[in-house]
Each structure stands twice: as C-alpha cells, then as structure tokens.
Amino acid sequence: MSAPTDSTDRSRPLLELRHVSTDIALRKGTVHALADINLEVQAGQVLGVVGESGSGKTMTALSVMGLLPAGGSVVGGEILFDGRDLRSLPPEEVRRIRGVEMGMVFQDPFTSLNPTMRIGAQVAEPLRVHQGVGKAAARDQAIEILRRVGMPRPDKIVDDYPHQLSGGMRQRVVIAMALVCSPRLLIADEPTTALDVTTQRQILDLIDDLRDEFGMALVLVTHDLGVIASRADRVAVMYAGRVVETAATADLFRAPRHRYTEALMQSLPEAADHDTGAKGRLYSIPGLPPDLSRPPTGCRFAPRCRFATAECRTTEVVLSTGDHQHACLHPVTVPAPAPISLRPGPAVVPTPAPALGVREPGERAPKAPAILSIRGLVKNYEAAGGALRRATGQVSAVAGVSFEVHPGETLGLVGESGCGKSTVGRLAVGLEVPTEGQIVLDGTDIATLDRRERRLMRRQVQLMFQDSYAAMNPRMRVDAILAEPLQIQHVGDASARRARVTTLLDQVGLSRRVLERYPHEFSGGQLQRLGLARSLALQPRLIVGDEPVSALDVSIQAQVLNLMRDLQHELGLAYVFISHDLSVVDYMSDRIGVMYLGKLVEVGPAHEVVRSARHPYTQALIDAVPSVDPNAVTRRTDTTIRGELPSALSPPSGCRFRTRCPLATETCATTEPPLTGDVHQVACHFPLRVESAEAARA
Amino acid sequence: MVRYLTMRLGQALIVVVLVTVITFVILHVLPGGAARATLGKDATLDQLAAFNHDMGYDQSLVRQYFLYVGRLLHGDLGYSYQLNQSVTEAIGQRLPKTMLLSLLSTLLAVVVAIPLGVIQAVRRNRWPDYTITSLSLLAYATPIFFLGLMMIILFSQVWPILPAEAPQGFTLGEVLSDPAGLILPTITLAIVTIAVYSRYVRSSMIDNLNENYVRTARSKGMPEWRVVLVHTLRNGLFPVITLLGMYLPALFSGALVVESLFNFPGMGRLFWQSALKRDFPILLGVTLIISVATVLGTLVADLLYAAVDPRVRLRGRAS
Asked: What residue intervals traverse the membrane (chain B) (predicted)?
C-alpha cells in the first residue's frame, strides 16, 4: 500500500467506470453481460473484483482493456483512465494506453503465450513497438524485467520457448510482459486460478511486491474470496452483471451487507463449524444464476435469496451511498461471526477429538475391516521422449503408497498437480494396473482374481470425475447413461434397471423429467449430480471422487458437497476424496492423506493434519491457502515453499521434498524417512510439533 | 536425429518394396498381357510365345520379380519396346518438365492462397469472406477438364492472348524458352489448389485468432497487422505444411488431366498413355518413382514441421 508516487491528481481516480454496460451479441439474442457498472480505482490501490462464473467480473476487465470477445461491445457509460474516456479517444491512442499505461495478466498461462515466439521477443515486444527501443537494448530490458519477476537464469530463458517452462514460470513471463513498460494500472484476471496453491502464493506475493515497487494500481479479478481477502484494499462483489456490494476489504469480510455476499461466505467449506468435530452442512444457494440474455427485473439475486420479498422482484435496487455500498433491500444488519481460518490458532493444543464423525482407526476397538486397503503401491510410467518417442526413463508417479479406507469413512487425498493423487485414485478403481504393490478390496487382493471375479468386484468401487460432461457420451440420454453400468454388469432386467435409474435421480435430487435429456442440457452442478448418480448405480461401498467439485462455483460446490455427505450417511458409503483444495478436503474428510511427488508424506485425522501439521510440506500447503479472514496477516513463514516441483523422471534421493524443504539436512538426502506414528503418521526426519502432539496424547 | 532419420528411411524402404510387389503382381495378372499389346492383334501365338520368352515373361512371377529388382538395384528400370527407349530415359525426359509445371503451379497457389485465407479469417463473415468462399467452392466443385477447357476457350479462342498448347520442347531449356505456353496449364492447376489451400488457411487462422495468446498480444497494445502477421500467421500455417507434404508426390506424378488437356509432355501423360498401351516397364517405373516421392513427401513434411514448430523441434530436450 504505497502512496501514489507519480504526479496524478490524488482527488481523481486512476480508473473510473461510470454506468458501464456491455453487451455480447450472439447468433441467438444478446447477452447483457454488464449492466450499469460503477467502479473506482485510485492510483496505487488494489481493487478486488469477486464473483462467480457469469457474474461479469472478467467482462469488466476486458471492457476496460478493450479486449472483448467477438460480438462484445461497451454499449453505454464511460471508462475514464486518468480522466480521459477510453471510449471517445482515437483507437491509436487507446492502443498506446493499453500497451504502455495498462497491463493485463490472464488466467491461463499455458495458452497466454505465443507458442512459436521466443520468450525474450514476446516480453520485449511492447518496448520495441511502443517506445522504439532497439533490438539489443530491448533484449537487455527483457532480461532485467524477467529477473525482477523472479525468473531463474533470465539470460537463458529469453531464448526459450513457452512450452519449455512450467505453469508458474509462464505466469511470471506474462507478468513480466505486462510490466515491461511500467504501467500505472495492472489488471489481473484470475492470475493464479490455473496454478497450484504454493505457486499461487509465490505469484500473489510477487504481484504485491511489484505493485509496491512500481507504485501501480491493481485490479484483481477472482472467484476466490481468500485471494481477495488477503490482498485487496477494496472489494467489489459482482453478481449477474452488476456490482452488488463494494466496501473496504476488512469491512466487507467482517460485515457483509448484501444477502448474496453473505450467502457466498456461508457457502465456503471454511465456514463450516470445525470445532465441534461434527462438521455441519454448508449453506448452499439454491438454483442457478439468471440467464443474462433475459435479465430479471428487480434484484437479480432475488430468485435465489432467502430474504427476498415481492418488492425485491419489482424494484430496481441501486447501490447505496457511502464507503460501504450495497444494493440490497434487506441487508444484513447483525455482523456475521468471523470466518474461520485454516491457520492454527496461537497456543491451541490440538485435542485428538474423540468426537462423532471422526473415525480414527486403531482407537475404536472392534473396527470394521477396511473396504479398501492399499499396500506399497507403485506406479511407474515409461517416459517417451525425442522424435522417436523411445523410452527415455521412468516417471515415478506413485512410489510406495499404503493406506486403508474403512466403511462409511472419507479419506481425503490432497496434494499439488503431479503428486500422484489422481493416479492413486485410478489404480484404486482398477483403471490402471499397478507396477508393484497390492490393492485389497473387501479383504481380497484383486490381483488374485480372474477376469469375471474382478468385474464383479469392480461394483464395490466406483469413480466420480471432475469433468462429468467429458466423462459422459454426449449422444446418450440420461436414462441410458445411468442404466449403462447396470447393463454392463448384467444387473436386473430392463424394468428393474428403469426403477433403479429413477431411484438414483431421486437420491441425487434431480427431477425424473431429466431422463430424456442429453448431457449438454445440464449445468455444471447438475452434471456432477448425474456423475454421482452414475457412480452410485451399482450400489458401491466406496466412491473415488477425483476433484469432484473443483470445476464448480462456490455456491454450487456447497450443493454437491452437501449431497455427497447426505448420501454417505444414508448409504454408509466410503469416499476417497481427491482434491487440490485443502479447505474442501478438510471439510469432507475424516482422515487426510497428503501426497508429494508420488509419496504419502502425512496421513492422519483431518482435524489434526490441518490444525497441527507435522510434515513441513503439509504446513507449507496450509500456509499457502489464502485465508478468508482479512485479519490473518499474510506472512512469509519459514515454511513458504520456494522453487519448483522436481521432475518425477529423476526424483530427489532420500526424502523427495528435501529440495524445497527449509529444514532439510544431509540426512534427508541419504535416508528416506519412513511413514511413522500410529494414528497421525508422518514421513519426515524432523517433523513439526512433536512435543505438543505427544503432550496431547499423554 | 540421425537415428530418427535412419528409422524413417527404413520405414520408407519397406513401403517402397511393398508397392513394387503389389504393382508388379497386379500388372502381370491382368488379362491380355504385354505381348499382345506390343505385337498387335495380328501376331501369331508363336510370335507371342517368342516375345514372352525373350522378355522373360514365361518364367514364374516370383523369378520375374527378383530379376526386376536385381535390375533395379543396378539403376535399370527396364526397357519399353513400345517407346523404343529405356524407362530411365523416358522418365528422365519428362520428369523435369512435370516438376517445373507442378512447382510453378504450387508456388502460385501458395502465394495466392495464403493472403486469401488470411483476408477471409480477418474479415470473417463479412463480404470479402463470403466472396472468396463462394469462388473457392465454385473452383473446387468444377471438374478440372472443364476448367481447363474454359481457360483454353477464353484465353486462346475468344480472347487469343495465350497459346492453347503447352510447349513441346524436348529438353527443359526448350520448354522454358516458350514461357507463354506454360501459363494456362499452370493457372488451371493452381486454381483448384488455391481453393483448397485458402480454405485451410482460413479455418486455421480463425482458430488461432481466437487463441488466448492473440488476446495477450492485443493486451500489449500491438497494432492489428502485427497481431495477424507476426503472432498468428506462423501458427496458422501449420496445416499448409501438411498439405505441401502430401502434394509432393504430385510433383513427380504430374497431373493426368491437365497434361493431357494441354498436350504437355510430362509424367502424367506418359503414365496415361502407357496404361492404355499396357506398357508394363513404364507403368512399373512411374509407380515406383511416385511411391518413393510419396514416402519422402511425408518425411519432408515432418521435418518441415520440426523446423517451424519449436514444440516439435525441442520435444525430448524440454523437461
């Protein structure tokens, strides 16, 4: 939060949107993507724009940049940059402002760079075009800016192509490109959504540092309330093409006024009451956002709002005035309880809660036999490389993972991309054959079974996918999709299958009228319900969910999570819940396993793993999750991970985490730490919080 | 790289051998036979038998094949009694002319098709796009013999500015000394190719213009010409490389219809006439050359890809 350093008139905002409306013309009708948007960003300030998909947050950013997709245009209002309306300036001047005074960072670093242009040329391009800098000088400046965004060996990277870099590194390039002309305003549209949480932390810290250094204003567009809470000065909450609430960050998170903002915060898994051990249901916003080609009259949130009255549906509500503005007729008046942070509180000794809902194997005397038991699981892939695609080595995807899942229990598997969590899931359901190790289903090692027995055994374990749309045949109707598993397994006759299919729809809360529809007719949340219904068809005892809610908006995610928990209680299901999102895993799981580069580094009761992590990697993961509690200071702890995930082609010797671990010693390089402990196990030579954990147990 | 090339050439060799076997077998089991075709319908059975004996046609197919391959390895493609010259010589006379015609028309096609495709993509769903699309489809749907005839009628009869017949020179130099004669066949061949290529360029450019990296370039305030020509064009031309690779065999085989139409003494007309006359040695020789060209063409296309696309070039080196 540096003071504005340039000569800008301080009374005038650097960027101001006045009554901006944006339409997108489609073949069929027009989508009114933005309606009467008013926003202000002062020089040096960070404005967070938050909302779910379709809320118009990205369209706001693209309207400012003049980068609307085909058919899109700003149809009304003024976009004032430093007092000048971008809509009435000549195109050449707008292009110069866009290139020099504003910079934009996009969501997907994997597609944001030109694949056939060298990094250096892409970064230096604005200098060459806008400022006429010579080739050699531009290259030097590109190297310099790459160094400032934390790129290792920038003098080498300039000659590389984008595909040679990891996602985090590519995002640094995109940032360097946006900053190379020292803009006064940076617009970052979901800059870290495609990245892992530890990389996200690095990138957000970097943007913070650079903002101070360059004295820029920042518009941070994101769906993630946590990212906003820790970084923004002011927040604008958007819903269905409108700004519904805007306030200073601390005010907004302490006391949201609009009913939508309130509902959104209550939908967060972090909002579930952790301390009782029995985690309550999440609040989920019913229904779907409105169709913006025919926006409803009155408050656009009214159809989904618990507090809506007839008045809400007829009166156009405008933003109130003052510092904390909201557009709600029945605003929240009593401050909501402070959101709960994932961070361990100071001096709270973790109590291994003997509470309901948390099953701890080894503690309960007559424990049910495990439904799934995995022992020493190893999966290597042949790595193909070079023009010949010959084997160049082995990728160690899973390296000796063991765990058990008991009936009715949820085991969460968490870790960053490439840690092997999905492979474990695919191995567990039999989609892949392990290189080594045993998979014991319901007491039977599936390697000992013949084909027919194995097929019957498959019924016990089913898989639920992240992208249910991609996982369904687009030419099959819902009735066929849901009946297919029954057909393949020869369960019942046609009428019995029909009956089963309707039961399944009832169970997942979908109307029986959807039977004759096709997958493309469903929304994301409905598709996940269908996916869940299909995996339930054979009455399995265990469902492996691979990122089942990762593609969903917060409010829809809450619906699906609640459903999964309800069905678990109803049917006694066990889940292996795979996700990169620690707060979701924490909410869903009885026990959590943390994976890093093919290894299970920590496993234990969810409460303990999250609130008193013992592996430095787990702690780093927890610290990297942006908290929705604006009071939680984003500090750079000892455990902040630096660097990049090593290649699984040649994993580090000893402890695989040692190359990024702040506590690593020579022992870590030579000896691989075994997973030790009884209830809360950790694979580390120097686990955190040994004393407190032992004290608690004593 | 050396290993890759060795393997690809090995594969190519296998394909070529298979092609010779298949053509050889098919041609020799056809009714009629070479003897009747060469000696005419008045020849006696004895004469036919004597001819077959002289030519080795009375031996087993397998033996004939190996004799043929043995000669091939010495660079001897056979002898055509009907043309009264060696196959090597017959092909050697025509190949340079065919290559000249194909190269000229391909060059013309590429030079015209790329800008057309780019204009269509940039002005998508507006009048320039609609106009060029209509013309492309028209050209694509017109039979080439009809197109050629129309060209002749228009430009050498109605408006006689160009010769209707291709240059008849014996050597490449003689052909080149009559460039006007090359214009009509070249343009006729190019028109269809332009129609195909410009469609590919158009759709590939449209795909690329919707890519995120193009939006990034615009966010840097790049002028539109730079966005299209510097950022998008290179990525948008990849399909053309594939097409060029697939077109390489035509460089050798020539164009049957157009060469016949304009009476151009190239490979296409040679093949056509040999097929009518059952001139086996020529047919075998031409087929062999075309199959080699086809195999090499795909190889060249792959190598070109590597040259243009760093993602292919550096695969394996990137970690």
From this structure: 12-30, 99-122, 134-159, 179-197, 236-262, 282-308
